[in-house]
Amino acid sequence: MREGISRPVRKPTNPNFSSGPCRKRPGWSLQALDGAALGRSHRSKEGKAKLREVIDLTRAVLEIPADYRIGIVPGSDTGSVEMALWGLLGPRGVDVFAWESFGGDWVIDITNELNLEDRRVFQAAYGDLPDLGKAAPDRDVVFTWNGTSSGVRVPNADWITDDRSGLTICDATSAAFAMDLPWSKLDVTTWSWQKVLGGEGAHGMIVLSPRAAERLTDHVPRWPMPKLFRMVRKGLVTEGLFVGETINTPSLLAVEDAIDGLRWARDIGGLPALKARCQENFDRAAQWVSQSDWCDFLASREEIRSQTSICLKIVDPEISGDQALQAEVATAVTARLAEEQVALDAGAYRTAPPGFRFWGGATVEASDLAVALEWLDWCYHEVRKAARA
C-alpha cells in the first residue's frame, strides 16, 4: 500500500458524476431551452411537433429501423419497462435475467405482481452475469443490457437467436446512445432521457419491433391495465402514441432539453461519436484501475464491464474481508469527494457492495474523470490513514 500520496492540485471542471440524472452536455446552459413551447398544450400543433422531433431525432441518431415504433411514455425507464411487461407478457413462458437491482425489480414484478407461473429466473450476484445461453427461443426474454448499479453489461446479443418465436424485452436505459443495440435482436427496448444524453427525468422511451406490435393486438392481458400502460385501443395499436401524442401530459421544458441533447449528439457525429466518448472515459478508468493497489472493477471480467456505469470495489487486503469496514471507509471517501467538490454522487448504489460509481457517459469529459480518480486515490488513503490512527 502506497503512502504519502500528494493532494491533487487540479479539480474537474464539472464535479457531477451522478448516474441519473446525469451531467449535461458540454457547453449546456439554460439558454439551450429558450425555444421550449412553455404554456402551450402538448396537443397543440407546436407541442406535438416538439414531441415528434424527439422521436425523429432518436430514430436518426440510434439508426432505428423505419418499421420500428418509437414512443414517449410516462414514468422514466421504469414506466417504459412496466408498460412492456404488463402489456406483452402472458401468452408464452418467460425467462428473466437479472444481475443487479433494477433487473431484480423486473423479477419481482413478473413473480409477485403479474404472478406468471411459467417463468424461469436466472440471477447472478453483483459483478457477474447469469448464463445467458439458457434463454429459450420459444419463450419471452426480459433482461437489462447494462446494469447501472453493477457496471456489468451483456457483451453482445449473440445469445439471442434470429429465428426466435418469443419476444425480447430489453431495459437499455444506461446503454442507449453509448453501446451498439442490434435492433434485429430486440423486440422491446426502453430507456430514459436522464442517462447518456444528460436529459431530465420522468419521461421514458419505448421502441417496439413489428413482432412486438403484433403481440399487442393478438394478446389481451388477463389483468386490469392501468391507463398509463395502454398501447392498444379497440384492438388496434394506438398509433398516435408513436408520433408524439403522449398518454399523459409531458413537461415541454424537459422535451426541449431532450431535443437539445439529441441535436448535440447528431452534430458531433451521431452514435459513433457518442460511443467513442464513452469508451474514452472507460479507458481512462481502466488505466487508473490497472495502477491501483486497493481498487478494482466490480465487474469480474473485462468483456462484461460497462463503459458508462463505472462501478469500483475496494480490494485493499487489510479491509476487503470486512464488509462493514469497507462500507464505513467507502462512505467516508464519498463524503470527502463531495466536500472537496471534485466528485458528487460518487458512492456505490445503495444495494450494491460497498464502493464507488462514476458515470462515464458521453456528456462526461475524460479529462474530468481522470482528475476525479486522482482525487479518489488521495481521499481513500487519507480516510484509511485516519481509520488506522
Q: What would you report as the Rg, rounded to the nearest angstrom?
A: 22 Å
Structural class: alpha/beta
Name of the level-1 CATH class of the largest domain: Alpha Beta
What proportion of the residues is helical, as a percent range? 25-40%
Catalogue the unreliable spans: none
The DSSP helix count reads: 8
Distance between the termini: 16 Å
What does this 3D model show about the protein?
It is a single chain. It contains eight helices and twelve strands. It has 389 residues and is α/β, with parallel strands linked by helices. The protein has two domains: 39-267, 3-Layer(aba) Sandwich (Aspartate Aminotransferase, domain 2); 270-388, Aspartate Aminotransferase, domain 1 (Alpha-Beta Complex). The strands form three sheets. The protein has a seven-stranded mixed beta sheet with strand order 1-7-6-5-4-2-3, with helices on both faces. Strand 8 (232-233) and strand 9 form a beta hairpin. Helix 1 runs parallel beside helix 5 (252-267). The protein is globular and about 70 Å long. The model has no long low-confidence stretch (mean pLDDT 96).
